[in-house]
Amino acid sequence: MSVCDSLLWCIFPTLVTSVTQPLLQSPRLRTLGMSAEIASRLRTLIEEGELPPGARIDERAFCEMFDVSKTPLREALKVLVAEGLVLHRQYIGYRVAPLDLDELRATFETLHGLEFTAGELAAARLSEVALARLERRHQAMLDAHAAGRRTEYFRINQEIHQLIIDGTANPVLAGIYAALMSKVHRARGAANADMLRWQESHEEHEAIMAALREPGRPRLAQPRRGQPHNPINQGIPQERSAMKLVRVGAPGAERPGLIDTQGRVRDLSGVVSELGPQQLSDAALARLAGVDMASLPVLPDARFGVPWTGIGKIIAIGLNYADHAAEAGLPPPAEPIIFLKANSALNGPNDAVMLPRGSEKTDWEVELGVVIGKTASDVSREAALSHVAGYCVVNDVSEREFQLERGGTWDKGKGCDTFCPVGPWLVTRDEVPDPQALGLWLDVNDERAQRGNTATMVFGVAHLVSYVSRFMTLHPGDLICTGTPPGVGMGAKPPRYLKAGDTMRLGIDGLGEQMQTVVAYTKA
């Protein structure tokens, strides 16, 4: 083993796993053997992102999945707690540990250098057949890159990684490389996007291919450094912007529009009279996507309203981020918590938020909004996303005294006038490849209060659409607010609430930003 290999082996001791003997007779040892297998399977689920950071580990569900009692499962969880992959808190239970940004920065720096070393080692022993296959996949990736097909580009990207891993001459390095890539999968979209990068740049792939074509080359040339790294992929051209549907104008007099590639509002009123439930079907959205944007008039700057009309129901989900549940002093729910938010709370994304009469505990909550485009009644998780028209930003403004201290359900603290700013855009489903990989944030008076990622939801979007549709039919135009990450005022120490004159600015990756000023109560 070379010095380099030895060093890498020391850096990643967790790759060395113990192999349990299958025929041990002691009940205690049998339990330990079972727990080692369970720990290995759970570790894989975590590293591959099936159990995202912050997710609650349902002991009953995993006992059923693994067909074991709680004893070996808990032994396995203790192992993962010791490894730092899982956290345990009394009354809350086990959950996947949140990502450590410092650890991930170090990991990605190592990955960057390791990738080139892997390319060199693979080049030494790749067969002509394997190299030809790699060349073909590389060309397919270039074609996807040129056409701006991001999903296909990333898929082939991962295939190329696997080919390099398979062709690597050193099995120790191959194991380390594979472990690092599993961490990439786990980290992807789950942390601050401007601190980490999930995919290599186009230059880096070219450098690896150069090494594979020239096996005698002593060392790979490093690509240029110093340029900012785009969290998606800085080498991919943006062939077209997302279809962002809007309604602009004075309250009650909004007109439909869409945002062009330069950020201007184009008037859609000559194509459709309104953006309502009828315009949210796949067929209707496809027709809008086919409109020649350049032929549409540019509208002057104006107020943004709620991006669509005809919202029959606003369904909200409580405690859907494990960290938010913890800051509220409550355990993550075993099933989604559903409550309704009044339609009269709807508000434009930049309209003022009015404090209710006597309010002293008005709070903020940035949330991903899911817009229904097709009627859904008891749909499966697999089919759930096909019923979604698109996504938007929602501020689930909440009065905590009304919500939690006045008895009854949460609705009183959630449905006050102006408590549901929505927009600025409705971004269509096809432009959001993975709703579980969106960063979201909220500032109060220009200070960051919330930062999170939809990857850490307890229940994902498909689960929520399926679950809600079991209990009530979802109709086109209905809105599901999917819960908020940690950082609400109620969870601060001491608690911090909104007062007249405060400002809230919030946003979600690719879905736009809102800004509201808080104003004192006035009777209408």
Care to give the gist of this entry?
By secondary structure, the protein is an alpha+beta fold.
Please, could you describe this protein's structure?
The structure is a single chain. The protein is α+β, with helices and mostly antiparallel strands and 524 residues long. It folds into 4 domains: 34-94, Winged helix-like DNA-binding domain superfamily/Winged helix DNA-binding domain (Arc Repressor Mutant, subunit A), CATH 1.10.10; 101-193 and 200-213; 244-305, no CATH class; 314-519, Fumarylacetoacetase-like, C-terminal domain (Fumarylacetoacetate hydrolase, domain 2). It has 15 helices and 20 strands. The chain has helices at 3-11, 27-47, 59-66, 70-83, 101-125, 128-147, 150-167, 171-187, 202-213, 282-289, 322-327, 381-384, 400-404, 411-414, 461-471, and strands at residues 86-89, 93-96, 244-248, 255-259, 265-267, 314-318, 337-340, 346-347, 353-354, 362-363, 366-372, 388-395, 398-399, 420-421, 426-428, 439-444, 447-453, 479-481, 503-508, 512-519. The strands form 5 sheets. It has a 9-stranded mixed sheet with strand order 5-4-3-15-12-11-18-6-7, covered by helices on one side. A 5-stranded mixed sheet has the order 9-20-19-16-17, with no helix packed on it. It has a two-stranded antiparallel sheet with strand order 1-2. Strand 4 and strand 5 (265-267) form a beta hairpin. Helix 5 (101-125) crosses helix 7 and helix 5 crosses helix 8 (171-187). The longest helix is centred in the N-terminal third of the chain and has 25 residues, at 101-125. Residues 1-31, 185-201 and 215-241 have low confidence and may be disordered.
